[in-house]
Known about the structure:
- There is one protein chain.
- The protein has two domains: 8-62, Homeodomain-like (Arc Repressor Mutant, subunit A, Orthogonal Bundle); 70-197.
- The chain has helices at residues 8-34, 37-44, 58-69, 71-80, 87-104, 107-118, 124-145, 154-177, 188-197.
- The protein has nine helices and no strands.
- By secondary structure, the chain is mainly α.
- Helix 1 packs across helix 6 (107-118), helix 5 (87-104) runs parallel beside helix 8 and helix 8 (154-177) runs antiparallel to helix 9 (188-197).
Amino acid sequence: MPQPPDDPTTKGERTRQALLEAAxxxxxxxxxxxxSMRAIAEGAGITPGGIYNHFAGKDELxxxxxxxxxPLTRIFPQLIGAQGNSPEERLRNAAQGIADELEAxxxxxNLFFAEMIECQGKHLATLSAALMPKALAFVTExxxxxxxxxxxxxVGLLQTFVGTVLATVFTRRFLASAGAPxxxxxxxxxxxxxYLHGILRGE
Length: 203
């Protein structure tokens, strides 16, 4: 029996996804400015001119890659979906899940730095609009259920949590590349101990 012809919309979506995947590899390996549109097209299996059937240019393509692959797309769903019998357990489980996601793909931090350094974070507004409301709802509910020091707000809780997890992954990667033995470096459990309980012993 002959196969039905490809649906043009489906074929276009497949090409667009192939472009995003090829562009992600270029951007994380070479950064935004040095990434080659020709290499992206080759990676996607199309001609360079074919890119412009889907994206107006490199900036629009990079913006789509940020929305699809930025570390926040891994962080917030893990945070929102974290389970546990106590607020501390939920935060620890979220932190572990996020760290595992980020460490499984070295390119995620490269994309983060390309966006923040080369592009000055200008593509994050769309991403934040999609992710931030759910993340804030989660930490607001969490903040109400746990005893925190006066002055700690839900936004502050979210900011310091994300910062702690990113610091764990980044410093482990940086110090390991500088020659520090990976088993000796602090992992997410130790960072979360400090985040939740501090570094100073009580009197």
